[in-house]
Design goal:
The protein is of the alpha+beta class. Helix 11 runs antiparallel to helix 12 and helix 12 runs antiparallel to helix 13. The longest helix has 18 residues. The chain starts with 5 loop residues before the first strand and ends with a helix. It binds flavin-adenine dinucleotide. The site of flavin-adenine dinucleotide has 33 residues, from strand 2, helix 2, helix 6 and helix 7.
């Protein structure tokens, strides 16, 4: 059951920021926030709804780049004609989120700011991330946990759109008047395992700015069920191609680390190389260099290797 809290619906951004005092929480579509409150992951005395802030909605293509309001629904991102044509990796990632109902209600800003999905964090465990002393997944059930970046807490970030944004060099704009690269938005557990983003408690993402896309952008997600499921593993590619030669590569993995995981090893293999079978094989092997299993999640290592290999092969075929 949902605990009781007051609900406010400010008419403008300034009003929303003013309401974010004490333990107040921002709500966009509410698909994640309300679940967290219902399940007691955290509590609040005030929910500040952004739903009246119409100016935070919409997709604005400006020359080569695009600005997407934080309240734009995930469904709109997935189906927007300009995004599908010019930033297909982003549209694809949005289309891979959850289910049609959740995509219609959830927003792009909320997708980037949602809480992790670890079953201990979401359950009745006072784990490290909730201020306790232990990460229960380390010696417990860890099939869906990280193979990279484990440092005390071994969650994986659950956000399908999050790996594509840094691959594209995107930034968020916030109510504090600053721009934060999405690559720097997420906080790794070795920095602070109680925080997910660098945003201040009273800071609201207002829009996401995505620069011109390179020749190839894509997102591939592998999950246990066809819908309504989080990534077991995935890869976001942003490649500049000159024929078959890769002149620039940004590669981020999903489902494998507490933050969108930049695979510089894959980028190094690809950059300056012709995208042939040998390069693809080397890149796929590089994708799992340094990966380590927690026990039950060892299947993720060959899975990531296979996903990277298949997605790079798709670039060649296309
Ligand atoms: C059954 C289920 C399956 C799911 N499957 C997937 C999946 O496969 N892939 C995936 O990526 N996601 C998945 N999700 C998560 C879903 O995508 C998120 O719930 C949704 O994207 C969050 O958007 P929202 O607008 O509803 O956010 P909210 O629930 O309103 O907010 C989520 C969090 O972000 C904060 N927040 C929201 N907007 C802002 C803002 N503008 N500025 C600052 N902070 C903000 C809130 O305070 C809250 O902490 C799933 C969720 C459910 C319930």
């Amino acid at each position: 059951m949902l605990p009781s809290f007051s609900y406010v619906q400010p008419r403008d951004l300034t009003g929303a920021v003013e309401q974010l005092r004490g333990d107040a929480r921002v709500m966009a579509g509410g698909t994640d926030l309300l679940g967290c409150l219902r399940d007691g992951v955290f509590s609040t005395s005030r929910v500040v709804s952004l739903s009246a802030l119409e100016n935070l909605r919409g997709v604005r293509v400006e020359g080569g780049s695009v600005r997407i309001g934080a309240l734009t629904t995930i469904a709109e991102v997935a189906s927007h004609p300009a995004l599908r044509e010019r930033w297909p990796g982003l549209a694809r990632a949005a289309g891979e989120v959850a289910s049609p109902q959740l995509r219609n209600q959830g927003t792009l800003g909320g997708n980037l700011c949602q809480k992790p999905r670890c079953w201990y964090f979401r359950g009745e465990f006072n784990c490290l991330r909730k201020g306790g002393d232990d990460c229960y997944a380390l010696d417990g059930r860890n099939a869906y946990h990280c193979i990279f970046g484990e440092s005390g807490c071994c969650i994986v970030h659950p956000k399908d759109t999050a790996p594509v944004h840094p691959a594209l060099g995107a930034s968020v704009r916030t109510s504090a008047g600053r721009a934060v690269e999405v690559e720097a938005l997420h906080v790794a557990p070795d920095v602070d395992f109680t925080r997910d983003t660098v945003l201040a408690p009273d800071e609201i993402v207002t829009e996401i700015e995505v620069p011109a896309a390179p020749s190839w952008t894509s997102y591939r997600k592998v999950r246990a069920r066809r819908a309504w499921d989080f990534a077991l593993a995935g890869v976001a590619l942003a490649l500049e191609l000159d024929g078959r030669r890769v002149t620039r590569a940004r590669v981020f993995l999903s489902g494998v680390a507490p933050i969108p995981w930049r695979s510089r090893a894959v980028e190094e293999v690809l950059t300056g190389a012709d995208l042939d079978a040998a390069t693809i094989e080397r890149a796929a092997a590089a994708a799992v260099a340094g990966a380590s299993s927690l026990g039950e999640n060892s299947f993720k290592i060959p899975l990531v290797r296979g996903v990277v290999e298949e997605e790079l092969a798709r670039v060649v075929i296309a």
